[in-house]
């Protein structure tokens, strides 16, 4: 069922347009995936995700969903799609990233990771096998391999050992995928993850190992964890040069609108990030003309739409002054509008990128957009 | 422009079906008005209010809007309709109620009320004239007279003096209405308010005074402030017997679903209350079958819709287990769904009441519904 069709590659950069097919429908790439941590994209109805934001796939966090509502509830519902009513594809991370960053205590061994819940301190164990089983239960269309995401900066020795463990864990993930099947009657697909911190030789070795694993899609992890943007771009370029062209490439946890366009130019097809929703809740709005801090006094009597260019009712029908008022009075509708707008903008942006790739003028458009979008309005 | 048509009165109780016309459209009564304190019904988009909840009129709070965003912003926008994008009728309270209940310090004299903002402690003054001017600036279709709402319980002497002052204030409100005109080119209509606490002779005197004032609609204030439900019903019945039949009657701040049906039976046409949205945010969901506390463990694996009878996507598409999960994890979407559901239920309920009044079987239907709705599910 899962397939990827490469539709066009730019001649002057690595940008690609493609199409992924999954059991829950088609994804046109490049694509941005809104993050639905706990089975909900914060502040956004599933109907709005589909019809207004025009999301084609969303992400769920295995660590969070495993703790709440828990696997009994998710399995009882018939998986996350049935639980939250989102009918299009879902990708889940493996839980590793949150275990490393959120858990108060965790111990990593070759077998897996023992950790304590950030909610009640209860003790849990994730292994490659367990991470696959949990993602099977969640019912993700795309399952991520259980990896270790080393911190930044990370010394060479640690990064190398960690990378090798991630590769060994991948074998166990693949074995577990083979030994089990889709829990709810549809196919689930594993994406392995390239690690290696910012060391070019490690990244090269990891990309080669991941490419050889022969999975239907591949991911780049361990970036956007504090390293300079230049390091992120260089690493992404290096890895994209090694990962197979005929499979989708997912850059995990990236990023700002200009990060996304730059990495599309390097050959990335899929992105996810909490920035558009998290920053929305703090009043930061992204537009093609630049970034708006809607709390600023300058918007107090600006009755123009938030952003008339983003094709979403929230962007076009609510004024800057109104959203500023909602943010200042801490009204629920403020974060709701801002989240709808930012996600709609992100989806519009990757849709425009795709159009320009297909039309052959992505690179000059990207260069222009990156300049514009970095402005502070 | 403002008009009321009485379409049908029940033969076995006081229930009425009617229609109000305003500059911003038609309101079919009996009606419930969602409360949009600060220019937003908490957690609900204006689009959802119109299309899903099917609200026909919403309420704004003069005290809150006067403080934030302030009259400069509201006037700059061209009134509240233009500011928040709600295109149907708006009713504003006079600000008095919040001044009495929210302000840390306030001093009531014949001239008006001096009070301090609950936000920054700044000093302000509301008088009957000022309350009219502010509501003119907000751009309400229906403007409420500036009254004193005495607390409950309230001694007879205070209630009587207060009532007389409210009547004197009404004359000043009417004079100010006459001396000014609609700020944004459409007509604004004043509703006076019956007071008199729970004293029948005061209520009778007040209702007669208000009826004689000859305004296009009338309101009953000072109820739902802590008195027993029986007192509320008796007072409402007494007042409805005096207020003119050919004008709409608005019972302020009421109430639960059964309160509303009981008061429709007594002859009330319009209601507002924060209960459906405030209780929604705490996980209390109203249905025709009874009240649901969605946080309870019993809903943990109940994958049935919140309420399949309420005609709203949120009521029908999200499960009890999902909303329970969202409430437990304090996700924004939980209060959003619950608010959408409760308001949709309230609007469905008054719509059904209207149907039954028109069909002639309101009273038995009401008696059955009141029993059902009070159950705890």
TrEMBL record, chains A, B:
It catalyses: 7-aminomethyl-7-carbaguanine + guanosine(34) in tRNA = 7-aminomethyl-7-carbaguanosine(34) in tRNA + guanine. Pathway: tRNA modification; tRNA-queuosine biosynthesis. Residues 13-374 form the tRNA-guanine(15) transglycosylase-like domain. Keywords: Glycosyltransferase, Queuosine biosynthesis, Transferase, tRNA processing. InterPro entries: ArchSynthase1/Queuine_TRR (IPR050076), TGT (IPR004803), TGT-like_sf (IPR036511), tRNA_ribo_trans-like (IPR002616). GO terms for biological process: tRNA queuosine(34) biosynthetic process. Its EC number is 2.4.2.29. It is an enzyme of class 2 (transferase). Residues 253-259, 277-281 are annotated as: RNA binding. Pfam families: TGT. The active site is at residues 93, 272. GO terms for molecular function: tRNA-guanosine(34) queuine transglycosylase activity. Substrate binds at residues 93-97, 147, 195, 222. GO terms for cellular component: cytosol. Belongs to the queuine tRNA-ribosyltransferase family. Homodimer. Within each dimer, one monomer is responsible for RNA recognition and catalysis, while the other monomer binds to the replacement base PreQ1. Catalyzes the base-exchange of a guanine (G) residue with the queuine precursor 7-aminomethyl-7-deazaguanine (PreQ1) at position 34 (anticodon wobble position) in tRNAs with GU(N) anticodons (tRNA-Asp, -Asn, -His and -Tyr). Catalysis occurs through a double-displacement mechanism. The nucleophile active site attacks the C1' of nucleotide 34 to detach the guanine base from the RNA, forming a covalent enzyme-RNA intermediate. The proton acceptor active site deprotonates the incoming PreQ1, allowing a nucleophilic attack on the C1' of the ribose to form the product. HAMAP family: Q_tRNA_Tgt. This is Queuine tRNA-ribosyltransferase. The lineage of its organism: Bacteria, Pseudomonadati, Bacteroidota, Saprospiria, Saprospirales.
């Amino acid at each position: 069922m899962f397939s990827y069709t490469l539709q066009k590659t730019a001649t002057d950069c690595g940008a690609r347009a493609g199409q992924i097919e999954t059991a829950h429908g088609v994804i046109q790439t490049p694509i941005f995936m809104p993050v639905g941590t706990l089975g909900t994209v914060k502040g956004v109805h599933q109907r709005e995700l589909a019809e207004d934001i025009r999301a084609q796939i969303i992400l769920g966090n295995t660590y969070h969903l495993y703790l709440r509502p828990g696997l009994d509830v998710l399995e009882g519902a018939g998986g996350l799609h049935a639980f939250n009513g989102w009918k299009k594809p879902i990708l889940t991370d493996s839980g590793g990233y949150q275990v490393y960053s959120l858990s108060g205590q965790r111990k990593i061994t070759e077998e897996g990771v023992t950790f304590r819940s950030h909610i009640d301190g209860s003790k849990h164990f994730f292994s490659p096998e367990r991470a696959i089983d949990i993602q099977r239960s969640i019912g993700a269309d795309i399952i991520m391999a259980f990896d270790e995401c080393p911190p930044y900066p990370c010394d060479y020795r640690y990064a190398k050992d960690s990378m090798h463990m991630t590769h060994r864990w991948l074998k166990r993930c693949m074995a577990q995928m083979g030994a089990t099947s889709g829990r709810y009657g549809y196919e689930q697909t594993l994406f392995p993850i390239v690690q290696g911190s910012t060391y070019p030789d490690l990244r090269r070795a990891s990309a080669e190992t991941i490419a050889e694993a022969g999975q239907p899609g591949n991911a780049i992890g361990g970036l956007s964890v504090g390293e300079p943007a230049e390091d992120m771009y260089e690493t992404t370029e290096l890895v994209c040069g090694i990962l197979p062209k005929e499979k989708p490439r997912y850059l995990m946890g990236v990023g700002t609108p200009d990060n996304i366009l730059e990495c599309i130019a390097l050959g990335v097809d899929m992105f996810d990030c909490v920035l558009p929703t998290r920053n929305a809740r703090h009043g930061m709005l992204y537009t093609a003309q630049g970034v708006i801090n809607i709390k600023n006094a300058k918007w107090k009597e600006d009755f123009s739409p938030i952003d008339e260019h983003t094709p979403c009712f929230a962007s076009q029908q609510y004024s800057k002054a109104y959203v500023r008022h909602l943010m200042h009075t801490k009204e629920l509708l403020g974060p709701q509008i801002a989240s709808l707008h930012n996600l709609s903008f992100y989806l519009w942006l990757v849709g425009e990128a795709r159009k320009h790739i297909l039309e052959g003028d992505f690179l000059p458009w990207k260069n222009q957009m990156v300049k514009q979008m970095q402005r502070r309005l």
